[in-house]
Amino acid sequence: MPVSRSDKGTSRSLNDEAVAEIYRIKKEYPRMNATQIHERLVQESFIPATVSVDSVQRFIRHNDLKAARDPNLRDRKAYEEDAFGKIWQADTCYLPYITENGHSRRGYCIMIIDGHSRLLVGGGLFYNDNAYNFQKVLKNAIAAYGIPDKLYVDNGCSYSNEQLSMICVSLGILLLHTRVRDGASKGKVERHFRTLKERWLYTLDMDSITSLAQFDAMLKDYMRSYNTTFHRGINGIPPDRYRASKDHPRKPASRQWLDDCFYNRLSRKVRKDSTITIDKVCYDVPMQFISAKVDVHFLPDDMDSAFILFEGQKFPIRQTNRNENCHTRRNNPVINYAKMGGAS
């Protein structure tokens, strides 16, 4: 008769310290999944990298450590829209550090996924997780696929800011935010980031990546591969669902219209010397706006294209050059004081 194993239900690949750490992590971070726990255990040397994620997953499953036991978890239902472009989800994933020109910096992956087709409509790698980088990813996605009805994002500063709100109003997009500290509500993009790490990131030799441009090109290759791979959630490939309802999203009126929608906007009062200040930098404006409150439209990385919009017209502004202004002829009237004094 076969004898039942004495260590049934335990893991031979996880030592006692690793097991204790798993219990601690699940108690402190009940929503952390097995892949994330495995990564932390390896980073903190509780287990060697040769121990598989499956070992951690089996241990959590056999010991009933699923996050569903957490009483603070919200009741959720699986859902999806019935057409492409009805809702897009966006988020940022922290990636490993890369060394470029002798400087080590963390990479940030900003990704947008369509809630119906699971198509990755936009993505990019950056050294900063900020509002303007997300705006660039969103603009490229809209140029390629049209304007979504809704945009679902979290409350991070990259996604919850006045500029994004104004951009969405200009585009006619309903901007939705998750509840605070409820990233799980963006389930589709969150699940995709797990897939990104397991299928792509963990297979890379990070030491061979020497620039952000190289890393970003590799990400674009991954996105093309993902978008043409069978997806169990939709029982097909994303492009098939996209093609079935691709006419639903509205198209931008023109490229110029789309560019104008994505300009950042600020209000400023023009000083007596015909200047305004943006981010501690002084700019010259046309003198007819002295003492007036003006609306400035600009791109943070291209201030040469900044302008004042007034009654449908664009009036360019430029960074102040005080030395050059010393030699600029003023359009002031010449006063003849001899004539003002009368005959002597």
Structural notes for this entry:
- The structure is a single chain.
- The protein has eleven helices and twelve strands.
- The chain is α+β, with helices and mostly antiparallel strands.
- The chain has three domains: 16-69; 87-244, Nucleotidyltransferase, domain 5; 263-326, SH3 type barrels, CATH 2.30.30.
- The strands form three sheets. It has a five-stranded mixed sheet, sandwiched between helices.
- α2 (34-43) crosses α3 (53-62).
Taking the alpha carbons of the first and last residues, their distance comes to 134 Å
Question: In angstroms, what is the radius of gyration?
Answer: 28 Å
Class per helix and strand makeup: alpha+beta
Q: How large is the share of residues in beta strands?
A: 15-25%
Number of helices: 11
Q: Low-confidence parts, pLDDT < 50 over ≥5 residues?
A: 4-9
The strand line-up of the biggest sheet is: 3-2-1-4-5
- Number of strand segments: 12
Mean pLDDT across the residues is 86
Index terms:
alpha+beta, Integrase_cat-core, RNaseH_sf, four-stranded antiparallel β-sheet, 344 residues, SH3 type barrels, nucleic acid binding, Integrase catalytic domain-containing protein, RNaseH-like_sf
Question: In terms of topology, how is this protein built?
Answer:
Blueprint: H1 16-28, H2 34-43, H3 53-62, E1 87-100, E2 103-114, E3 120-126, H4 131-145, E4 150-153, H5 162-171, E5 174-177, H6 187-199, H7 212-227, H8 238-244, H9 255-261, E6 264-269, E7 275-278, E8 281-284, E9 293-299, E10 302-310, E11 313-316, E12 318-319, H10 322-326, H11 337-341
Parallel strand pairs: 1-4, 4-5
Antiparallel strand pairs: 1-2, 2-3, 6-9, 7-8, 8-12, 9-10, 10-11
Helix pairs in contact: 2-3
